[in-house]
Specification:
Largest sheet: none
Radius of gyration: 20 Å
Helix content: over 70%
Strand content: under 5%
Structural class: mainly alpha
Number of strands: 0
Order of helices and strands: HHHHHHHHHHH
């Protein structure tokens, strides 16, 4: 049990340190946005590989390190972060097609149908608990009630993470020569969560966002300028 909080703490610390160093390098040499993205992708792959190598000795959450690295760049220079985000967005256009195609190819339709009601119930209970937790975290913030509810709504759609890790138990069981029934159910429920929450959540965000949110003009212009600059580099 000690390994879990230790891996989280170590991952965050490593990510913060790398993020600070990376920002200083970017600031000094000012590479084009494309090169920044390539460097960050390379470091991310190395961190994930390091987690795999060190897992027998030191618990290390590589994905948290990658997230912390991005947080530092956003905190230090949001314009630079917007440039990197715009480039990654272009990569994601292709990556999401590959990701969801691979997940869809693994799903057993019969298992998904059998898990229908029970799976939907589990997803619903999870969303209720998540919504309560999200709203509770915002009680001390400067957001008004409507804005807090909007944040809760934005956390309802499920897709990317479920698609990315939903098939992991199935793959691990198959690799170990185990019975894959449980893994198929997990994958089916993950896909069911995408089908149920992604379209409804996207619709709810679109409807409530226009009525609740007011975006600062400075923030809009900065993001647009960063995107334009990333297209040029």
């Amino acid at each position: 049990l000690v390994g879990i909080p230790l891996s989280i703490l170590l991952g965050i610390v490593v990510g913060l340190v790398i993020g600070v160093g990376l920002f200083k390098v970017f600031q000094k040499f000012n590479p084009r946005a494309t090169k920044r993205v390539l460097v960050m992708l390379g470091l991310s792959v190395l961190l994930v590989r390091a987690e795999y190598i060190m897992q027998a000795w030191i618990p290390f959450a590589a994905l948290l390190a990658v997230m912390a690295m991005g947080f530092i760049i956003l905190e230090k220079d949001d314009h630079m972060a917007h440039e990197i985000s715009a480039k990654l967005g272009k990569i994601w256009v292709f990556a999401e097609i590959v990701l969801f195609t691979m997940v869809g190819a693994q799903v057993d339709i019969e298992v998904a149908m059998e898990a229908g009601f029970a799976g939907a119930l589990i997803i619903g209970l999870g969303l209720v608990a998540r919504s309560i937790g999200t709203y509770g975290c915002l009680l001390g913030s400067e957001l008004n009630v409507a804005e807090r509810i909007f944040v809760v709504i934005t956390y309802l759609p499920k897709a990317t993470v479920q698609a990315a890790i939903g098939g992991a138990p199935l793959a691990a069981m198959a690799l170990a020569g185990m019975e894959t029934g449980a893994g198929e159910i997990i994958l089916a429920v993950a896909v069911l969560s995408i089908v149920l929450t992604a379209p409804l959540g996207a619709w709810a965000i679109s409807v409530t966002g226009d009525r609740v949110l007011q975006v600062a003009l400075a923030g809009i212009h900065d993001a647009r300028d960063a995107v334009k600059e990333s297209e040029g580099g």
